[in-house]
């Protein structure tokens, strides 16, 4: 494996930041691009450019002189954010993906990996808690729940046509709930595993054992740890497979079970309070048959082990945030 020049877009985000370090560890030269720096640790990228990829000329600059592009940049977040920002998400992500892909073509990029999502699957296949795992071909007839999923489907098509008509080798991965340390854990963009780790950590550190769960908590998902995700996308980029493919775990758990696992890791007992909130589809799981066949591999890190690492990191963030808040309160009371 020789050294390659690689671009990671969205390198200020959760998966992109980890991917930069991972690819450098494999001996590659890596450029990261984002509209923001990584939030929780400085980037290790050989070159890091702050660029808005909704703009075509910025995409040309980003993709200049690289052989491979991992296209991760997206306006996205957890269920709350995705349900509340359809217009913005569809608008921004269409611009980012159309311009990045076309700039890669103009600059003669050889391989391109687009990060799609399990959110492309139709709502009518995900109405029950105990649903069959989703196979790749079941994305059609299309009826994703949110604009986020529609945009992912459109960009999948764009990637397929760019390969057929322009010869750019485009790979398409559909992630199923990737989680791990150094991802959004508060503020509205965090997803279920991080949000639950935060709530459990707050319960542990404040002694208030009540945890709010959106809906009845019986909605099901599978969750895949970041280290498995990185291995999987590197393998896919090196493969000769170009159709959309799932990347996730195929162990389905309810959100209530997820809370119980995290509470056990934290060593506390919690009381769940079910409240109204966006829940997404009722049930979702990844069918990994194609993944096993194409890559001769599938994610192997257990949910418990991935959550233990994630919880440890989030508990530390919560501890620091509570300490900061209490010293601010103290200052405030002195001023008064
Ligand atoms: P993230 O939000 O942490 O990272 C996305 C990054 O894109 C952010 O740092 C953001 O600043 C950047 N970005 C947004 N608009 C931009 C713009 N105009 N120009 C440049 N950069 C911009 O998300 P993530 O979890 O790391 O996800 C990475 C990719 O994987 C996304 O495309 C996402 O849709 C996809 N995906 C993630 C999951 C998951 O569970 N994390 C699941 C399915 C799909």
List keywords for this structure.
336 residues, Rossmann fold, globular, seven-stranded parallel β-sheet, 16% strand, 10 helices, binds nicotinamide-adenine-dinucleotide, alpha/beta, two-stranded parallel sheet
Explained architecture:
This protein has 336 residues and is of the alpha/beta class. It has a domain of 198 residues: Rossmann fold (3-Layer(aba) Sandwich), CATH 3.40.50.720. Helices cover 44% and strands 16% of the residues. It contains ten helices and 13 strands. The protein has a seven-stranded parallel β-sheet with strand order 3-2-1-4-5-6-11, with helices on both faces. The chain has a two-stranded parallel sheet with strand order 7-10. Strand 1, helix 1 and strand 2 form a beta-alpha-beta unit. Helix 2 packs across helix 4, helix 6 packs across helix 10 and helix 8 packs across helix 10. The longest helix is centred in the C-terminal third of the chain and has 33 residues. It is globular.
How do the helices and strands line up, and which of them pair or pack?
Layout (H helix, E strand, L loop, with lengths): L4 E5 L4 H12 L3 E6 L12 E4 L5 H8 L4 E4 L7 H6 L1 H21 L4 E7 L29 H20 L2 E7 L2 E2 L12 H15 L3 E5 L5 E2 L2 E2 H13 L6 E3 L5 E2 H12 L4 E5 L13 H7 L7 H33 L1
Helix pairs in contact: 1-7, 2-4, 4-5, 6-8, 6-10, 8-10
The site of nicotinamide-adenine-dinucleotide has 25 residues, from helix 1, helix 4 and strand 5.
CATH superfamily (homologous) name of the domain at 5-179 and 225-247 = NAD(P)-binding Rossmann-like Domain
Task: Give the name of the CATH architecture of the domain at 5-179 and 225-247.
Answer: 3-Layer(aba) Sandwich
Strand order of the largest sheet: 3-2-1-4-5-6-11
Separation of the first and last Cα atoms: 64 Å
Tell me the strand percentage band: 15-25%
